[in-house]
Amino acid sequence: MHKRGMTCWLLAILTAFALLASACGGDDGDTSSASGSASAAATTATPADSGDSGGDDAPATTAAPADDPAEEPAEDGPAEEEPAEEAPPADHLGDGSLGVIRVGAGEEIQIRSLNAISGDVAFLGIPNQRGIEMAIADYGPIGGHDVTIGTGLDDLCSADGGAAAAQTIVADEEVVGVIGTSCSGAAAAAAPLISEAGMVMVSPSNTSPSLTSDLAGTAGENNYPGYYRTAHNDLYQGAAAAGFALDVLGVNTAAAIHDGDPYTQGLAQAFADAFEAGGGTMTGFTAVNKGDTDMVPVLTEVAAGAPELVFFPIFQPEGDFIVQQVSGVDGMAGVTLMAADGLMISNFMQIPETEGMYFSGPDLRYGLNANGATGQSADGFLAEYEAEWGESPSAAFWAHSYDATTLLLDAIAAASYDDDGTLVIDRAGVREYLGTVSDYRGIIGVLSCDDFGDCGAQRITVIGHADSADLDASMSNVIYEYSPSGAFQVGTVLQVEIPLTATWRGVTAESIHIAATTIDFDWLVENGFSPNGWGDQTLVWETLVADLNARGGINGRTVVLEAVSPFSAIPGFGIGADSVCLEVAGDMETFAVLGGFLGPAEISNICIPGQQETILIGGRTTTERLAQVTAPWYENGMGKERRMDAYLSLLQQNGYLDGEKVAVVGAEESRATYEVGIEILKSMGVEIVLEAISDVGVGETEAEDAWWDVMGERVRASGATAVVFAGGDRAGFRGVHRAGLDVHLFPYNNESLTSLSTNVTAEMVVGAITMTGLTEQEQFDQPEVQERCIAPFAAANPDVEIGMPDTHVDGIEKWWRSIMTHCNQLRMFEIIATQAGRNLTHDSFREAAESLPQFKLPLAPYASLGAGKVDADDSARLSVYVEDDDDGHLEVLTDLMDTTP
Asked: Does the predicted model carry a pTM greater than 0.90?
């Protein structure tokens, strides 16, 4: 896969004059000298003074060849003759301060692979070297010269091995740079030698912070100019492992074991520091010696501290002995074991005793990422790798190796120029390129190099290992994802075998029984209250539950959908919400009801977790309502009081309350929200000129309008310039419009705008600013929505035209809305119930919810639960209602924010 054009395009951006012919191989023809002889490639250098800034201060020590034309005496001649010494062309990076390499016609550009390719850690180095070879083949020649690694060198994953191999490399003055090492200990010994020689080293799998920095601007003790890496910095991995332990597993005590290597000790320390910073207690921090086979003494030492988790980021074979001997040590029963990428390999994970372990390591979900220099993708690489070597890569850093190689090759291309058939490579230019890499597209993601050589994507995941006979399933079982911008639980923890519940209502040893409630859109459409239905909601629910069961159900139990029951959102008309509650939570043996009741029917939510003592996922929670229930009740949206708090905070942060005189108008059934709004506005110093609350029931249109006939004049008389609505919004829109009031509309409940009715038209609400989350199209485009919701339904129902938000036309069923909404509800139930374990009761369900401080839902990128927090959605932004050809829509005003308390 030779993508010459892509390489040239990248080089054109990075060089000042973009003379692509010389940089990208325009001289692939005859490049021999006039005499026909090809001189050996040589390095010419002018030693640089030590101490120069910029990281390129290592001197080069080789002299220029004796036959250099610059050494010949100048002859007398006409003025137009060339000067005795000619400056190199300006179409390349570098100033020559570290010397240059001259590659003659027909000669190869020399780089080296330095990886652990023998012994116990060959599993790590062999895929690295193969990745280098594949990248070189895909990349092709540079300036008409092939690139070679010569004979792959072995770093032995040790300081001695790294130093010995580095001495061999620097003795060859033709070598430009090195891809390696595999292990951080080898790099610590090799890096100073490589740096001193003016070369570069780009590692695909070194992760020790000592090789780059502490991420706070201080160089590590083993950081040297010319060192770079595509692997992550283990300070991030330590934080990820600690965050998983604390926030997902809920452990409070831990111990760590290392083997004295810079990698293992550095990662163990990073974990310990982050764990303690997060509120955990380290009960032990100890080490084994490389070569030890008896792990009982160190495990006994660890057990004395009674940790809940042991983190041991070491290698084989010491890791093998730990998992094989831990069961025989008193005090270690039930202790969770966690390792890192050094053991996240097939040889280790095939050991039966590793089942139930967790592993942190680089995020291997590369998707459609492609290397910008060659176009190679992860799927393409793996297919070619397996075709060539008959196996999959045995360790995690194969893509990092490929990207590291193309980075070095691009650096060589950017730092080279043609000198009358000889390719000249400027060593300082190679470093200059690597030191300024930004937004480089690799298989692993987008790479940018900082001042200390950290170039990696810095994304970490934690996987759960359940089956030593199915490693692919374990490697794809991502439970937790971490990046410098945030961390999320994205999967469920491994389940410890405990007795099944067989007596709780709605739960048997084989099944969990649920029911769902839905707005009766058929009735709304038939009676002119809505222009669109939501498709066959029963079919949607049945399909989503069937897909969940096809994926294994919940902790091995089948989910049984007892009923999908529609209710009328308008009291007094259609099927009453109270009767639906009695059906799905009283007459049926259900463990949980999903959906709840919305709109004017919200008050009936209390019936399900209150009178019927059945778990509810959905509805609208308030402090007052929660006080009336006994069963767990969790809202997949944002609770009313917290919504008002977040909404007013966003309005203030974005200046929309500046100078406003505010009337706060609410409805009795939302009194708590109304009171919260007034309290917050006062704390902000906002001028409140009117406070009024209606005791008319929401949805009683005639009575609401009569109340607003009076209230409209009161708003006018108050001098209000804005109205904050806290319940009864639709009646308020009508009242403000009929009174002809020129005020800003601030409804905290966006459903008042997204579900307009026949008596609330677009012209009444134009300019209203509300709080929303993702737009409907953004929701639809979320990968989790497509993979978990849309795709399974489409596969099971190929004849249904699902549609999508951006192309929707009134009068067509909103299948997409129905699928997304119900999938979101089911996913939240699945996450909590899975976390609750096999002993499924109301208490275990509540405890599970309280152990989910941060996770993702299909419709909520930011979500959390916890002690006292029962509303999951934390995603919020401001949007404004605008007119268009289809009456109107909400338009985004601000970026999506995480409002987690």
From this structure: no
